[in-house]
């Protein structure tokens, strides 16, 4: 669990990290370099979940061996499915990272939402729904690993 007190924002009591795959952790279906060690480090404190429509069909093989739970969604109603997923976990204990329009509802509902751009860019709806916008997944994961940076950005 990660406990982070952010004056003027709220105290984060995070148990779960929910990540989108394509456009967030992967480009054209290929896991980005440097993601695996960050996921392994964060898995010591958080339960890691990847929830994806798996556009390219390779999420399971790309994530094999990493300490996480993978959920592949049907093509329809993905935004609502992601929202339901984090609500079932307890959204107040969830940090989310995503880039797509189908991530907007979970980014808004989560205790902490990161929108990332990466090679696919980011939906303006995802950016507006998130608490933070960062250029790529590496920076989002590093903020969770160095929480004082979050305090500096989010404090009131």
Quickly describe the structure.
It contains seven helices and ten strands.
Biggest pleated-sheet summary: 6 strands, parallel
Number of helices: 7
Unreliable stretches (pLDDT < 50, length at least 5) are none
Q: Report the CATH superfamily.
A: HAD superfamily/HAD-like
Account of the protein in words:
The protein is of the alpha/beta class and 156 residues long. The protein has a single domain, classed as HAD superfamily/HAD-like (Rossmann fold, 3-Layer(aba) Sandwich), CATH 3.40.50.1000. 35% of the residues lie in helices and 25% in strands. It has helices spanning 35-42, 59-63, 78-89, 104-109, 124-129, 137-145, 147-154; strands at 2-5, 11-14, 16-19, 26-27, 30-31, 47-52, 69-72, 94-98, 112-116, 132-134. The strands form three sheets. It has a six-stranded parallel β-sheet with strand order 7-6-3-8-9-10. It has a two-stranded antiparallel sheet with strand order 1-2. A two-stranded antiparallel ribbon has the order 4-5. Helix 1 runs parallel beside helix 6 (137-145) and helix 6 crosses helix 7. The relative contact order is 0.20. The mean pLDDT is 95.
Topology summary:
Elements: E1 2-5, E2 11-14, E3 16-19, E4 26-27, E5 30-31, H1 35-42, E6 47-52, H2 59-63, E7 69-72, H3 78-89, E8 94-98, H4 104-109, E9 112-116, H5 124-129, E10 132-134, H6 137-145, H7 147-154
Helix pairs in contact: 1-6, 6-7
């Amino acid at each position: 669990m990660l406990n982070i007190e952010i004056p003027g924002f709220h105290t984060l009591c995070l148990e779960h990290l929910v990540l989108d795959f394509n456009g967030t952790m992967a480009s054209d279906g290929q896991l980005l370099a440097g993601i695996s060690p960050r996921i392994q480090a964060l898995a010591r404190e958080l339960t890691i979940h990847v929830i994806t429509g798996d556009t390219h069909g390779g999420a399971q093989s790309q994530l094999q061996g990493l300490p996480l739970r993978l959920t592949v969604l049907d093509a329809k109603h993905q935004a609502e499915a992601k929202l339901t997923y984090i609500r079932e976990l307890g959204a107040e204990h969830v940090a989310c990272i995503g880039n797509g329009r189908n991530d907007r509802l979970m980014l808004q509902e989560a205790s902490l939402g990161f929108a990332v751009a990466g090679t696919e860019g980011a939906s303006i709806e995802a950016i507006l729904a998130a608490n933070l916008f960062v250029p790529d997944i590496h920076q989002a994961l590093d903020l969770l690993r160095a929480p004082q940076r979050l305090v500096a950005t989010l404090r009131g």
